[in-house]
Design a protein that fits this description.
Elements: H1 2-32, E1 37-44, E2 51-56, E3 67-70, E4 75-80, E5 86-92, E6 97-103, E7 107-116, E8 124-132, H2 135-143, H3 146-158, H4 162-174, H5 177-184, H6 187-213, H7 219-227, H8 236-240, H9 244-248, H10 250-259, E9 273-275, E10 281-283, H11 284-288, E11 293-299, H12 304-320, E12 325-331, H13 336-346, E13 351-354, H14 359-362, E14 370-375, E15 380-383, H15 388-399
Parallel strand pairs: 1-7, 11-12, 12-13
Antiparallel strand pairs: 1-4, 2-3, 2-5, 5-6, 7-8, 9-10, 11-14, 14-15
């Protein structure tokens, strides 16, 4: 009996010692886990004194640097702390070149060979970029490796169409619609457009698969931010698939804010000036002068929902323009040629201007299509009114 008791006591002592050892290991791990990050850079090819900034990325907004320094002997260092991994750009010079990195609380090293272009602008390019010390960055690189395949696909379907593209562009600038139509209806151009459509379908599919794979954590909203430059209502179901933890993450909150921007009803708009397709600048106040109601419409050539709404805008314009209604469309297109092409296809009979990135920000445009109904005093009285809703609102306002 005593022998059994001794064995039991011995067994308990072993469990006790194992427990103590596990707790000690946990404390040791916690104590040694980094609570902050250090980014050490070693860059060749750039002059000492070159400005280096750490700028947040994947936010759909122009961000201010969180830290700044200069190169000394080709080296720079940033330190800080994060609650969860974040995407940053290490920006060199006066925004002349950058290296992207996923930062986490660890010791991160960046090595690269920089080169300043001898062309106008003196842009900085980098090669032999090596980033170590960030497991999040390693994972990001692995998960986005498919983009190299997409880059190859893009280059492949553009082969052989360079001259045709130049001819089309030249005809557009000259206003030669006959030549433009001839090129657009050629078998070569139609084949190009078919390949282009297939390419963007593949991009969309790959992006959605990447996001869905990470719907339970912060990577999902992060990849959603990097996959779309602007959101449309079509992306709302993508956000809704995320877990609560993903939605509450840093990037989850940014996605939510972009998809569901704060209401501007009751606020006044400032006058602004933008250029039309011919390069002529128009001021908003001159366009809307004497009008009772104005619909400021933010759209883009690549935005399907935006273009589906154009027939509804045409209907409203035909009905209410004689009664004091005006539309002012502002495109957020970065590709001016694509915008010009869309204008030719859509034939909108009201002012169409190209955003300078400032006007859309002043309206807090985070997703398109975005429309703002403004009264004659410049006060916003309605948002995102489309189709039947816009028709009903204008009917009500014009009666009163």
């Amino acid at each position: 009996m005593k022998a059994i008791q001794n064995k039991i006591i011995g067994f308990c002592l072993c469990l006790f010692m194992v427990s103590i050892n596990i707790q000690a290991q946990k404390k040791k791990t916690t104590a040694t886990a980094p609570a902050s990050y250090t980014i050490e850079g070693n860059i060749t090819g750039l002059a000492d004194g070159t400005a280096v900034k750490l700028v947040p990325g994947a936010t759909h907004s122009s961000e201010l640097p969180v830290a700044e320094t200069i190169l000394k002997d080709g080296k720079f260092t940033f330190t800080g702390k994060l609650k969860e991994p974040r995407f940053f750009y290490v920006v060199f010079g006066k925004s002349k070149g950058n290296i992207s990195v996923m930062v986490e609380n660890s010791k991160i090293q960046i090595a690269a060979a920089g080169k300043v272009s001898d062309q106008e602008g003196e842009w900085i390019s980098f090669k032999d970029v090596v980033i170590t010390g960030s497991k999040s960055h390693d994972y990001y690189v692995k998960e986005t490796a498919f983009k190299e395949e997409l880059n190859n696909d893009y280059a492949e379907y553009h082969k052989g169409t360079e001259e045709l593209g130049k001819l089309y562009s030249k005809a557009r600038v000259a206003g030669n619609k006959k030549t433009m139509d001839s090129i657009a209806n050629s078998p070569e151009w139609k084949a190009f457009e078919a390949k282009e459509k297939a390419f963007f379908t593949k991009v969309e599919t790959k992006s959605k698969e990447l996001i869905a794979k990470h719907k339970t954590n912060w990577w999902g909203p992060f990849f959603m931010m990097t996959s779309y430059s602007y959101f449309t209502p079509e992306q709302k179901p993508i956000y809704e698939q995320f877990s609560e933890a993903a939605k509450k993450s840093y990037y989850g909150q940014i996605v939510d804010k972009d998809l569901n921007p704060k209401s501007l009803v009751g606020t006044s708009i400032a006058n602004f000036g933008l250029k039309d397709k011919d390069g002529k600048t128009f001021n908003a106040k001159d366009i809307v002068s004497g009008k009772k109601y104005i619909l400021v419409d933010f759209w883009a050539s690549w935005c399907g929902p935006c273009r589906k709404e154009i027939p509804n805008l045409k209907t409203a314009y035909a009905e209410y323009a004689p009664k004091g209604f005006e539309i002012l469309s502002v495109s957020i297109d970065k590709d001016e040629k694509a915008w010009q092409k869309a204008l030719g296809q859509e034939n909108m009979q009201w002012h169409n201007l190209l955003d300078d990135d400032k006007v859309s920000k002043s309206f807090n445009v985070k997703a398109i299509p975005a429309t703002y109904l403004v009264d004659g005093k410049g006060v916003i009285i309605g948002e995102n009114l489309r189709g039947a809703e816009l028709e009903a609102k204008l009917k009500e306002l014009m009666k009163s």
